[in-house]
DNA sequence: CGCGAGGTTGATTAAAGTCAATGCATGTGG
DNA sequence: CCACATGCATTGACTTTAATCAACCTCGCG
């Protein structure tokens, strides 16, 4: 299902492939170099960082870590998608995000030294494991790394503020539009299409994340499809009118479905 | 502005009054020493930190900083209460928190180097201004400070995750109960009563923060008062049944008002 | 003493939730 | 290869929750 950067695909020329592999498995060779932790580091510093990092596969539906596990490492997503959720005593869950390639997981555990969330792979995935103590040791000698780490933490804060805004202020339609726009931008940043992508999560996950039910998500999809904003087939999404969707998300335009044009079948 | 010498306290003539003042204005003498940034630092390091910190008064209803202002400093609340909110293009606001004594503001600005929120004083307040560049310079030599800074950032992340949980999963009554419990714990941590305190914000601010209207807040207060959980007079709150309120907040007990016992006056 | 901001209360409405039936793709075993 | 089970998704009917609208109260203050 998932090809960890061409590696498995070229079995018939062993030696060069191995070289390619090791390059690809290092920070220097990673396509997320410009998004991930090594951003801004020179080659030498990148290699020093690289030395403390381990790689780990996380099969679909398995946990990267669980709430309450002792904190040892941060993780950067190399390949794949995750969901990260909290849970209360009653067992209710709230998905706080869907981390994807280049994103850092586990920052919420630094304070208490226990992970505060469950992190589950939505598909067969791969992460870079960054032992936090070793990372801290590097900070004293690598101010650029430290500064970028602070930016990553800060960005996590603003990401969550965005979700708070969404949950506190927006109606269902806006929420779902924001969600799509946000995915669109994330994929664009990573060099993928901004208008065509696959949802890696179920409708239920989306609903949970947006504070809505699965039925509401279904209805929002139906409505936006009727209005010609998106085209959806299963988990394949195509955004047909990105700017209209963006306006919807930002709340500057309330879209009213005109059922006249779309009589019930 | 800055009085780093604690040794001045060893005087026992008229000077002591002044010395006491200056001690109070320094990190060493600050009552928030155990909660704020200097946590865990020895006297010498505390003084080094102290040297880069300035103090600033923020009158009620005035801005500490505004969305879009260039980021230069973090702020620690010394005295008073603030509200911190985001705003979208349409002008809708979402209060993300009510920082109080010992809390750090402005961490969301590190990434973009622009503040992402407005921060407004809810009463006449005072902050410690921590120029971020100077703080970064200290990190290389003060790993304890750095580690504690990371904990502060991490805690900010978990605080916000708690709000996301609240907004995404809880009904009005739970939200308001959580809000009260959270205030209660914050005050307890700071050595104040866990069951009697003053709300520093309007009902409208509370409603906005909790994703509810002012009317809903009013009704929740009325209901909890009827149920004997709290006593409220204007902004004075007394929690009469902390454990029941806690259960409500955690969702493990759905409280049903029995209007039979409380006929309309 | 009257004004105004902030707060409460009641009646009604709108939005999203719940419940229930149905559809559709995938995978498995006969 | 079909039949059927399963998990996920859609759609419709109805209910619940909190929002909206509107009236009124209360307290502090000029």
TrEMBL record, chains A, B:
<dbReference type="InterPro" id="IPR050397">
    <property type="entry name" value="Env_Response_Regulators"/>
</dbReference>
<keyword id="KW-0238">DNA-binding</keyword>
<protein>
    <submittedName>
        <fullName>Fumarate/nitrate reduction transcriptional regulator Fnr</fullName>
    </submittedName>
</protein>
<keyword id="KW-0805">Transcription regulation</keyword>
<dbReference type="InterPro" id="IPR012318">
    <property type="entry name" value="HTH_CRP"/>
</dbReference>
<dbReference type="InterPro" id="IPR036388">
    <property type="entry name" value="WH-like_DNA-bd_sf"/>
</dbReference>
<feature type="domain" description="HTH crp-type">
    <location>
        <begin position="170"/>
        <end position="243"/>
    </location>
</feature>
<dbReference type="InterPro" id="IPR014710">
    <property type="entry name" value="RmlC-like_jellyroll"/>
</dbReference>
<dbReference type="InterPro" id="IPR000595">
    <property type="entry name" value="cNMP-bd_dom"/>
</dbReference>
<dbReference type="Pfam" id="PF13545">
    <property type="entry name" value="HTH_Crp_2"/>
</dbReference>
<dbReference type="InterPro" id="IPR036390">
    <property type="entry name" value="WH_DNA-bd_sf"/>
</dbReference>
<dbReference type="InterPro" id="IPR018490">
    <property type="entry name" value="cNMP-bd_dom_sf"/>
</dbReference>
<keyword id="KW-0804">Transcription</keyword>
<dbReference type="Pfam" id="PF00027">
    <property type="entry name" value="cNMP_binding"/>
</dbReference>
């Amino acid at each position: 299902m998932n090809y960890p950067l061409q590696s498995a695909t070229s079995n018939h020329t062993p030696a060069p492939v191995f070289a390619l592999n090791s390059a690809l498995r290092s920070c220097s060779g990673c396509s997320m170099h410009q998004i991930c932790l090594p951003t801004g580091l020179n080659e030498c510093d990148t290699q020093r960082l690289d030395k403390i990092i381990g790689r780990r596969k996380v099969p679909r539906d398995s946990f990267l870590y669980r709430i309450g596990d002792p904190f040892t490492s941060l993780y950067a997503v190399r390949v794949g998608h995750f969901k990260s959720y909290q849970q209360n005593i009653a067992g209710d869950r709230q998905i706080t995000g869907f981390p994807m390639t280049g994103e850092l997981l586990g920052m919420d555990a630094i304070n208490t030294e226990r992970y505060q969330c469950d992190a589950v792979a939505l598909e067969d995935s791969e992460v870079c494991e960054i032992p936090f103590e070793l990372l801290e040791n590097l900070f004293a000698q690598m101010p650029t790394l430290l500064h970028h780490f602070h930016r990553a933490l800060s960005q996590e804060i603003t990401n969550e503020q965005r979700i708070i805004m969404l949950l506190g202020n927006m109606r269902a339609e806006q929420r779902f539009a924001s969600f799509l726009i946000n995915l669109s931008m994330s994929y664009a940043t990573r060099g993928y299409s901004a208008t065509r992508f696959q949802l890696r999560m179920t409708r239920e996950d989306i609903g949970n994340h947006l504070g809505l039910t699965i039925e509401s998500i279904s209805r929002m999809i139906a409505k936006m499809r009727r209005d010609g904003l998106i085209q959806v087939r299963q988990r394949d999404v195509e955004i047909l009118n990105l700017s209209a969707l963006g306006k919807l998300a930002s709340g500057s335009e309330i879209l009213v479905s005109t059922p006249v044009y779309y009589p019930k079948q």
